[in-house]
Amino acid sequence: VAIRELAMRCPGLRDVHLQNTHVTDVAAVELAKRCPGLRVLDLGRTQVTDVAIRELAERCPGLRHVHVHNTQVTDVAIDELARCCPGLQMNFSGETQETDVDLLKLAKRCSGLRTVDSSKTLLADMTIAELS
């Protein structure tokens, strides 16, 4: 309820950090619907899933920094972010569902990609070499 109120009262929000909170898809979708100008969104260690990330990708194409470490976000949503948000920079570090294929898709679709944090993940040497 608090995130919904915040989004309703502050539709111009650009930078939102919700790491380590009990935020769910419902709250994240409200942000997407009411704050289309979001640029930075930290959802690390929250309860968000692909549902919220897909909605954010579609409604907030200007997203630049998205943090989804230690969430249930999968490659499906990462692919949608890469497709809809070409200036994206990602933080996958920690326990995510990210795969080597996801990271390569992100790199190919986001020509402005400058930063990817995949610390504490299991990326293959071949993927790292291909990104170089």
Question: What's a concise summary of this model?
Answer:
With 132 residues, the protein is α/β, with parallel strands linked by helices. The chain has helices spanning 2-9, 25-34, 50-59, 75-84, 100-109, 125-131; strands at 15-17, 40-42, 65-67, 89-91, 116-117.
Task: Draw up the topology in text.
Layout: H1 2-9, E1 15-17, H2 25-34, E2 40-42, H3 50-59, E3 65-67, H4 75-84, E4 89-91, H5 100-109, E5 116-117, H6 125-131
Parallel strand pairs: 1-2, 2-3, 3-4, 4-5
Helix pairs in contact: 1-2, 2-3, 3-4, 4-5
Please give a structural write-up.
Strands 1-2-3-4-5 form a five-stranded parallel β-sheet, with no helix packed on it. It has helices at 2-9, 25-34, 50-59, 75-84, 100-109, 125-131; strands spanning 15-17, 40-42, 65-67, 89-91, 116-117. The chain starts with a helix and ends with a helix. 42% of the residues lie in helices and 11% in strands. It is built from six helices and five strands. The protein has 132 residues and is α/β, with parallel strands linked by helices. Helix 5 links the parallel strand 4 (89-91) and strand 5. Helix 3 runs parallel beside helix 4.
